[in-house]
Backbone:
């Protein structure tokens, strides 16, 4: 099994590198391929079982968009063919139409999904998120300079119970198409959600998926759900 990690040197904010550290514990026999900013991505010439990218700074986000633009058709093909892909934090925005900056200028993105982001660099948005996916509860954090707009009703990832979806007014978070998962939640997401981690492991062909440190992970997950359900630190 091969898992490509896009731009780990740049995309490591908010503990998101913990997603890969956890996957290495869950999948000790997997090969993890790190793609640096000036590398040709492995998915262009090879066939990884999974592609992952985490959160980065806004300046690095623009660099990454320019690096991936030549491969947008390849990425769309991977999504259409059911490649397992997970993008967290602001990484999903590279797949949208554009990012509108404070001065109203636009950064053109890959345009794979009919959504767009408004970036307000002096208005950081923070909230906890409690929602559900595939019959299981999902928890996470949001800390972002952007709000995302457009219609994700037919392809959202998490239905939010507490917190916000793609923007403050939405209760539908992220994008889920085939085995492509995109969310602005950070945390790291996989460490905080052992059942979703096992779901991904199943999509990768693991016959009896059991995440690392399962007993402790599930207990922490259940405690966190109880905390999130009653916590006042949530944008409603």
Residues:
């Amino acid at each position: 099994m091969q898992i490509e990690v896009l731009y780990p040197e740049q995309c490591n904010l908010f503990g998101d590198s913990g997603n890969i550290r956890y996957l290495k514990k869950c999948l000790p026999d997997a090969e993890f391929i790190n793609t640096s900013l000036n590398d040709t991505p492995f998915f262009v010439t090879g066939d990884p079982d999974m592609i992952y990218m985490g959160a980065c700074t806004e300046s690095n986000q623009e660099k990454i968009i320019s690096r991936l633009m030549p491969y947008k058709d390849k990425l769309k093909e991977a999504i259409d063919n059911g490649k397992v892909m997970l993008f967290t934090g602001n990484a999903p925005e590279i797949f949208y139409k554009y990012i509108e900056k404070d001065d109203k200028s636009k950064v053109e993105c890959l345009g794979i999904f009919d959504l767009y982001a408004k970036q307000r660099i002096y208005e950081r948005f923070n909230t906890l998120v409690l929602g559900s996916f595939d019959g299981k509860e999902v928890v996470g954090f949001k800390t972002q300079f952007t709000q995302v707009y457009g219609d994700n009703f037919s392809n959202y990832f998490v239905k939010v119970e507490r917190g916000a979806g793609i923007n403050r007014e939405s209760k539908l978070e992220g994008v889920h198409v085939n085995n492509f998962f995109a969310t602005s939640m950070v945390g790291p997401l996989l460490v905080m959600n052992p059942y979703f981690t096992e779901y991904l492991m199943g999509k990768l062909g693991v016959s009896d998926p059991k995440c690392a440190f399962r007993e402790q992970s599930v207990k922490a997950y259940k405690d966190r759900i109880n905390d999130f359900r009653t916590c006042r630190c949530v944008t409603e």
